[in-house]
Specification:
Largest sheet of chain B: 7 strands, mixed
Structural class of chain B: mainly beta
Radius of gyration of chain A: 29 Å
Number of strands of chain B: 10
Oligomer: heterodimer
Distance between the termini of chain B: 48 Å
Strand content of chain B: over 45%
Order of helices and strands of chain B: EEEEEHEEEEE
Order of helices and strands of chain A: HEEEHEEHHEHHHEEEEEEEEEE
Number of helices of chain B: 1
Distance between the termini of chain A: 24 Å
Number of helices of chain A: 7
Chain lengths: 376, 144
Amino acid sequence: MNATRPTRWRYLLAAGLELIGLLCVVVLAIRAGRMVGTLGWRETECTIESARMRTWEDSDGDQQRAIDVTYRYQVDGRTRRSHRYDLWDNRKGDVGAIVRSLSPGAQVRCFYDPHRPQDAVIDRRLDPDALFGLLGLIPLWFGVHVARRTWRDRHWGARERRRQVELLGVRPRRLALRRLGATIASRLALYGLFGPVLLALSLHDRGGILGQLVRAEIAFLPAVWVVIVLALEAVATALFVHTLMRALGPRFSLATVQPARRGAPVVLQWRASGVTPSIRRIGLELVGREEADYERGSGDDRETGTETHELFRQVLVTQSRAERRVLSHGSVTVEVPAFAFSFDGGNNRVRWTIVLSADVAGWADSFEELELDIAP
Amino acid sequence: MKDALTIEAPDRVIPGEPFDGTVGWRLGHLPARAVLRLAWRTAGDGIPDQHVVEEMDVAGLPAAAPAESIADGPYRGSHAVDALAPGPLRATDVRRFRLRAPPYPPSFRGHLIRLEWRLELAVDAATVSRALVISPAPGPLELP
């Protein structure tokens, strides 16, 4: 019995959340793109002619401040002038501190577009405030989750029919193991975008926003935000590096020689491939779990989740460097318990997995769970 | 007159094996439709799952007592009648069925999940169901 079929209005809610999230991310992407566009600009020396802080009140009566600067620079023997301090609207960072650093007659470095020499800017680094766009990932994630959940609830019947084909044994069971979890490629793309790519943009040009932070060129609150952003980018970069090592490092494939059956022995083979640095230890375990998706409460108090109960765990193989020759490939006979069988009803599952862990010297360790389909 | 529906079937069946049974009813009217279903459902901590594996129209099933069927018919004695041929549903009827127990999933009892098979007879708006154990063991498989 399934819960009430959700209406299409939930798709509308999901679309709204996704739209808000996308808008924030797109604004960030546009700003980052503008910065990337200036990477080919040429550096030269500019002379500050005048610099002052311009203040005015907006429609809400709040005081606004911007840098009002004029500087000159030479391109091909011709003197040019510009009023642009940054790539945005001359309001980046601590306006007062910046104006004080731009005393008339001072020589500062600036950048000009070689194809349009009249376009110049003193500071082409990423605006820390622009990174607030990253907060758009939250509604975007919620929107995708709501849409996915709604689709799943609305198409439950179809899923059950498909599953029935499996129940009747039509599905071939030649390869009884399949990989669990997200693909390495999607993780690399996600971590790569929000890790090294964004970090490179944030640190570009004299340490970027980190350099500004160290030189105390940013006010207190933006500085706190910069620290948070840099920490998140560092974490994403670390995850990217780890995932890359996993992708390059030893990847294990497992297969059963014959279909796994309840109460019958089955031969399990493993093989490491890819760049395989020294494997120090490898371990294989057979694990059985009950998993039940639950939904409690109603309305805003509705709580969903999955309860799990481990019903079986058995170490199949533990091999260390002493048996180095058999570490990269080998086989083991698994005694499948008499009560073991796989079941997937949609919300309720009995899953059997082979848990593989490998300790790799000087490299990211390997940990994989592969589902073993056990016929009753 | 109260509707009385019955299902007679073995309590336990081995997966993949055929089994026989009867369904019957005693109604105050001629039923328009009677359906027999074989289904499983889960119970326990999770959101219940259920699935109808087989559904058959009872009108297409042979009568459980052919002699009685012929004796009651409007054309009794006028011409030869195939005693095993399916006939129209009657107000009081008993039909035989033969099903094959699906090989999967077996009845089981776990810490979080229970899976139960059942036979369900629906005659117009009235229904009755009977629990059935489909398991290679004497009872439902017990998960530790």
